[in-house]
Amino acid sequence: MILELEPIFNNIGQRLDFEYQLALTDFPTIETPANIKGSVFNRAGVVHFSAAAAFDYEAPCDRCAEMTKRRFHIPIEHILVTALNNEENDEFILLSGMRFETDDLVREDIILSLPSSYLCREDCKGVCQYCGKNLNNDSCSCHAPTDPRLAVLRQLLDNESE
Ligand SMILES: [Zn+2]
Ligand SMILES: [Zn+2]
What we know:
By secondary structure, the protein is of the alpha+beta class.
């Protein structure tokens, strides 16, 4: 979306609200479009860009592989400047003009915030490594492979109790 920033830069206290849909077709895990809602405002001469991107994210759980959908709300907070004073800071966005195309900034912040690992739930039990059952829904009777020495001992004990 293109925002006309001149009135914002020229007037302390000025504010512009916006809301739009941004297509994110390059990302199969994101249900497109994302809803972008926010505002640009001039507070004491500093122009803030403050928005939130909301979208459904669907990906397989890293542990149990179950497809899991979750709503994401990504905050996008920046300060818009027309010149930089040697500051290298991700927070500052250097504008090339007073017509500001927001899409690249929003898209980049969304990509940076995507999780590198994804679980269906915090305490996902994963799948049994022996029978492959999803242990969140099912229990199984698999055991870790028995130490052969223990197996012999168990057999001795079994024989004794007979
Ligand atoms: Zn899981
Ligand atoms: Zn099992």
